[in-house]
Amino acid sequence: MEKDDPQELESKFNSKTKAIILNTPHNPLGKVYNKEELQVIADLCIKYDTLCISDEVYEWLVYSGNKHLKIATFPGMWERTITIGSAGKTFSVTGWKLGWSIGPNHLIKHLQTVQQNTIYTCATPLQEALAQAFWIDIKRMDDPECYFNSLPKELEVKRDRIVHLLESVGLKPIVPDGGYFIIADVSLLDPDLSDMKNNEPYDYKFVKWMTKHKKLSAIPVSAFCNSETKSQFEKFVRFCFIKKDSTLDAAEEIIKAWSVQKS
């Protein structure tokens, strides 16, 4: 995965910069920031007295050759970092809508005020279940059956399968280092999108067309972009591979048949 440009990143900082939002492993790219890259971000946060809101909800879903590092553990960063976690991503219970924030008291107390005046509380049985799940897996961290170890191994196989599938039909996926999404340039498939709305980006029209005509769903990547970068990702869509093998089998049949029709 391509590295960030430190000079370009620093150009976004100034004396008025209040906070930076970091996402690693990244959604939708699947990038896992390494120690060198995180150090650049940490140095800038310290230099410009900036808070770091670190979204690490996919922290356990990291694949071979990569390692997740918490920027809050870097020198000078604990006191200026809020780390975000997710039960949905950690234990595959996305419907629970339960997460957590970790940080120093002088920052967390303000989040408590926000929570009190927005969602107010989370269901007590779900909080208890999450605590028990953590307790069980923390005690068996070195065990292959620990969910923190078994899930990424299971998903890495699925990731590699999808990468091979997309490449086999001529598409160009960006292989993720972590997370359970993969994005790919789908322009080679070149469907007739004339029945879609003309005022929408290409990827929006593409995924709507694909859902309607191929019964295969994905997410338009430009939905994650600001107006300046949207055009760079219009030909990319995001596929999700945390699926049953039967679902991936069906997707493979659709994509391969589609490719044969184009050839």
TrEMBL record:
EC code: 2.6.1.63, 2.6.1.7, 4.4.1.13
Cofactors demanded by this protein: pyridoxal 5'-phosphate
Designated name of the protein: Kynurenine--oxoglutarate transaminase 3
Entry keywords, A to Z: Aminotransferase, Lyase, Pyridoxal phosphate, Transferase
One BP term from GO: L-kynurenine catabolic process
Pathway it works in: Amino-acid degradation; L-kynurenine degradation; kynurenate from L-kynurenine: step 1/2
Keyword Transferase: yes
Similarity annotation: Belongs to the class-I pyridoxal-phosphate-dependent aminotransferase family.
Domain Aminotransferase class I/classII large: residue ranges: 5-250
Cited CDD domains: AAT_like
GO cellular component, one term: mitochondrion
Function, in words: Catalyzes the irreversible transamination of the L-tryptophan metabolite L-kynurenine to form kynurenic acid (KA), an intermediate in the tryptophan catabolic pathway which is also a broad spectrum antagonist of the three ionotropic excitatory amino acid receptors among others. May catalyze the beta-elimination of S-conjugates and Se-conjugates of L-(seleno)cysteine, resulting in the cleavage of the C-S or C-Se bond.
Quaternary organization: Homodimer.
Catalytic reaction(s) noted: an S-substituted L-cysteine + H2O = a thiol + pyruvate + NH4(+); 3-hydroxy-L-kynurenine + glyoxylate = xanthurenate + glycine + H2O; L-kynurenine + glyoxylate = kynurenate + glycine + H2O; L-kynurenine + 2-oxoglutarate = kynurenate + L-glutamate + H2O
InterPro entries named in the record: Aminotransferase_I/II_large (IPR004839), Kynurenine-oxoglutarate_AT (IPR051326), PyrdxlP-dep_Trfase (IPR015424), PyrdxlP-dep_Trfase_major (IPR015421), PyrdxlP-dep_Trfase_small (IPR015422)
Lineage: Eukaryota, Metazoa, Chordata, Craniata, Vertebrata
One Gene Ontology MF term: kynurenine-glyoxylate transaminase activity
Organism the protein comes from: Colobus angolensis palliatus
Coiled coil: none
